Amino acid sequence: MSKIPSTPATRLLREQGVAYTEHPYRYEEHGGTRVSARELGVDEHATIKTLVMEDEDREPLVVLMHGDREVSTKALARTIGKKTVQPCRPEVANRHSGYQVGGTSPFGTRKKLPVYLERSILELEKVYINGGSRGFLVGLAPAEIVRVLAPVLVDVAIEK
Fold it and tell me: Does the pLDDT of residue 3 top 70, yes or no?
């Protein structure tokens, strides 16, 4: 079990008065939400991945998606009025977010990025999302994500 890190994400959550739980776990390279859900004993659907993407102008954005779903980049581009949206290369994502891929949190990013939240996430009572470090998730109510990040709600999930 890893020790619990203090990250820009947890500092922001504390500053905003968010009630959250801390969940360190044994990180596995390229394990993704499948591993974190298994390690924490929670449903992968409630494990939210933070994806740093960019549009055709290379403008970055964050998409929050269920761990057991993929993002339809075509539907996302249409929804936000762009021609294309694609995942950033890891080094570009790291630069935009200030976090290392595998430990990217939507909270406390290096620069303010537009955030898009899959609407069905709001139907869950509690979600587990990266706390700003590999092997570290925070559990919180989806309403807190909305309160702190003011994301645009989207319907762009596709089955894996």
Answer: no
